[in-house]
Amino acid sequence: MRDNIDEILFSAEDILNRVTDMGLTISSDYRGLDPLLVGILKGSFIFIADLIRKINIPINLDFMAISSYGNNIDSSGVVRILKDLDENISERHVLIVEDIVDTGLTLGYLFQILQARRPASLKICTLLDRPTRRIVELPIAYSGFQIPDTFVVGYGLDYRQRYRNLPYIAKLRLKNEKNN
Ligand code: IMP
Fold first, then answer.
1. For residue 151, which atom of ligand 1 is closest to its CA?
2. Is position 102 annotated as part of the catalytic site?
3. Per-residue confidence (pLDDT) for residue 177, from 0 to 100
4. Structural domain contains residue 51
5. From its phi and psi, is residue 37 left (phi > 0), alpha (psi between -120 and 50) or beta?
6. Domain annotation covers residue 50
7. Ligand 1 centroid vs 53 CA: distance in angstroms?
8. What is the pLDDT of residue 1?
C-alpha cells in the first residue's frame, strides 16, 4: 500500500461488483429510453468508463467539465462551465454521472442548468455519497456507496490532481503528504 494511504475503503473487486449491479439496474430502468449519460470531469471518468460497460442497452455519452476555483467549490455553489455538452438534451432522458456528492453544491448548480434545458428526465448517479456534509438536497437516483466524513482518493478521485490512478478507493493520510 502507498505511504499516504491510510485504509482501503473499497477494493477494486468491491467497486466492480457494485458498479455491475448499478449498470444492470440502470439498464432495466432505462430500457427503450435511449438515455444520455453525462460524466462530470475529471473525477467520474473511471467510474463512467466502467459503468457504461455494464449497461446492456443503447446509450449516448457526453461530458461536462466545471471549474472548482482552485481546489475549493465556491460557497455559493456557483461553478463555471469549462466544457459544455456537445449534445442537445431537450426531450432526452439524461443521467448525470458523478464521482462523489459531498455538500451537493456542485451538482445542485449543474442540475438547475441542465433542468432549464428541458430534458425528458434528469437523474443523478453517483459512485460515492457523503450525506453528513450535505448543504443542498439532491434527488440521487443511484448511489454506489455511502462514505463517512473522511477524504477519499482513487478510482478517479484526486487530492491535488494525484491518486486518480489507484484501482481502489482509500482514505488519505494528509499529514504525510510531503513524503510521497
Ligand atoms: P460538492 O459540491 O461539495 O458535493 O463536491 C463535489 C466535488 O468535490 C466532487 O465532484 C469532487 O470533485 C470533490 N470532492 C468532494 N469530496 C471529495 C473527496 O473525498 N475526495 C476527492 N474529491 C472530493
1. 19
2. yes
3. 46
4. yes
5. beta
6. yes
7. 24
8. 61
Residue 153: is it exposed, middle or buried by C-beta count within 10 angstroms (0-12/13-18/19+)? buried
Bridging pattern class, strands 81-83 and 140-146: unpaired
CATH of the domain at 25: 3.40.50.2020
Whose Cα sits closest to atom 16 in ligand 1? Answer: 102
Structural domain that includes position 81: 10-152
Digit-coded pLDDT (tens) for 51-89: 999 999 999 999 999 886 555 544 556 788 999 999 899
Q: How confident is the model at residue 36 (pLDDT cuts 50, 70, 90)?
A: very high
pLDDT cut 90: percent of the chain above it: 81
Residue type, 53: R
Q: Indicate the number of domains in the chain.
A: 1
The pick from 38, 97, 100 for probing ligand 1's pocket by mutation, whose C-beta has the most ligand atoms within 8 angstroms, reads 100
Q: Which ligand 1 atom is the nearest neighbour of the CA of 104?
A: 4
What SS3 class is residue 34? coil
pLDDT digits (tens, 9 = 90+) for 121-159: 999 999 999 999 999 999 999 999 999 999 999 999 999
